Known about the structure:
Elements: H1 2-28, H2 32-40, H3 46-62, H4 70-88, H5 97-124, H6 130-154, H7 157-177, H8 183-194, H9 199-228
Helix pairs in contact: 1-2, 1-5, 1-6, 1-7, 2-7, 3-5, 4-5, 4-7, 6-7
Amino acid sequence: MNGHKFLNSRRLSVAGFSFLFAYILSFLFEGQVLYSLLDLRGTDADCYILAAIIAHFTGLFTSSLFVKSQAVAKNMMFGGMGLCLAATVPFFFAPSSLWLGGLIVSGYFSVCSVAAWGFFLRAFTPKNERIRSCADVLIYSNLLIIAVNVVAMNRSPYIGLSLAMLCLVIGMVFIWMMPVAHENEQNKTLKNKTHGGIKNPLILLCLFVFIITINSGLMYQVINPAFGH
């Protein structure tokens, strides 16, 4: 019975993060939905893209300052995704300072949510299967991204934006359903293994960012332009 609950927790974790990641990569992080909206409005994209990237990296390096437990991590993910949802609404209207502010707020808190997911990856996925969980996230999120991008490019950027926001809502439901059991045991294990050191997690984080950067670069600079002809 415990194994069944453990498996369900893992699936909820992967599903929730996949929908969050789909929102980030289809909209916030140089997403096709964002580019389509900026192009539709005839707005220069450079300022918005740079602001979002800075917010992302700020979130990566500061989230560890206040996310210290599974309970806080769950609240961060749920609350952060809610803030992202609210900050995305202005993009249905004419460009204003709310666009830039929305990108900064959603960029920061979405990446804080990404970092917070590490607690659940560690808690719900056995050590020898964590790569598989990360691979599942990349597969599912990319399938969602493709669907959102196709709609944004061939139907309407606003429909694509609505789908990206729907991904957030569905992701919030999965995150809300996740338990925070085994927190005491997990905290003890974490303290015993790390003993205050962050070298290995930092190396893994840098490696993950490096791989995602290459993947995103290929998608946005090679694959998307090729399909645009």
